[in-house]
Amino acid sequence: MWALVIALVLALASIIWVDTKLNRTDAFPSQHVANTAGTNWLLVGSDSREGLTDEEAARLGTGGDIGSMRTDTIMVLHLPLRGKATLMSIPRDSYVNIPGYGQDKINAAFSVGGAPLLTQTVEQATGLRINHYAEIGMAGLANVVDSVGGIQVCPTEAIDDPLANLNIQAGCQTVDGPTALGYVRTRHTANGDLDRVARQREFFAALVDKITSASTIANPFRFWPTVNSIAGSFTVNKNDHAWHLLRVGLAMRGGVDTVTVPVGGFEDTDVGSVVLWDDTAAQQLFDSLK
């Protein structure tokens, strides 16, 4: 009895402690689209190198300019009132209207206007009201993976991409933080960014599964480093809290449907090669989540 009480107190204390350590930002625009059903999270994998030394950038294979602000990962996690969650990937090169800037790749919204403009762009493109926001950078992603002792990924083919510092064989295997980072960043496969968004969903599900597993929660030598890593790695909206993140973990443990916004083709434009949505199929998907 007392052991259960102590465990509950420690769990509550850790949640409160994480909540005080989370990075917070004003991630929402001044005006939202109308309310839609359920709860929607905008999940962003920031490509920012801010805070990385040259040595850390080399270890993680990030390349690019230190301090650049981009995003490789844009996903919407839909938590319905009942039933399974849906994790929807939005290809970063999706050609959409960015309020105040016109047609461009969707990740340009993050570059020019940060989280608020990206949230506004996603809302207007999908019609889905975003209720919560969570962002993690490169170093943070690798650190969280390492804190849980690695995660399992199952590539269907070998991938050798020096630009992402990735050399991985086909088949299920446990990978460390830098390898996991390369795995979600590489586009060095036949379908490029479309393959990458599928790997990003695979990674997210595997990471949540490992964080919420008994092997992590019941092992204090793994649990506390993981809690500490999560606390310092995530940026959430100013009104989001650790218990909201906990609900994400519980929903993911219950199973999740995964999907990419339906693609209708590709086109060369003045902003480069872009992804065009299949408007009819995409609208059907968005409507199913409202």
Going by CATH, what is the homologous superfamily? Answer: LCP protein
Q: Quick one: CATH class?
A: Alpha Beta
Our estimate of the beta-strand percent is 15-25%
Average pLDDT, all residues: 86
Instruction: Count every beta strand, where a strand is a DSSP E run of 2 or more residues.
Output: 15
Number of domains: 1
Shape, principal axes of CA atoms: globular
**SS-based structural class?**
alpha+beta
What is the H-and-E element order?
HEEHEEEEHEHEEEEHHHHEHEEEH
CATH architecture: 3-Layer(aba) Sandwich
Q: DSSP helix count?
A: 10
The oligomeric status of these chains comes to single chain
Organism: Corynebacterium vitaeruminis DSM 20294
Protein name: Membrane-bound protein
Pfam family, one: LytR_cpsA_psr
InterPro entries: LytR/CpsA/Psr_CW_biosynth, LytR_CpsA_psr
Topology:
Layout: H1 2-21, E1 23-25, E2 39-46, H2 54-60, E3 71-79, E4 85-89, E5 95-98, E6 102-105, H3 107-126, E7 132-136, H4 138-147, E8 151-153, E9 159-161, E10 166-168, E11 173-175, H5 177-185, H6 193-211, H7 214-217, H8 220-233, E12 234-237, H9 242-253, E13 256-260, E14 263-269, E15 272-277, H10 279-288
Parallel strand pairs: 1-12, 2-7, 4-13
Antiparallel strand pairs: 2-3, 3-4, 5-6, 7-12, 8-11, 9-10, 14-15
Helix pairs in contact: 1-8, 4-5, 4-8, 5-6
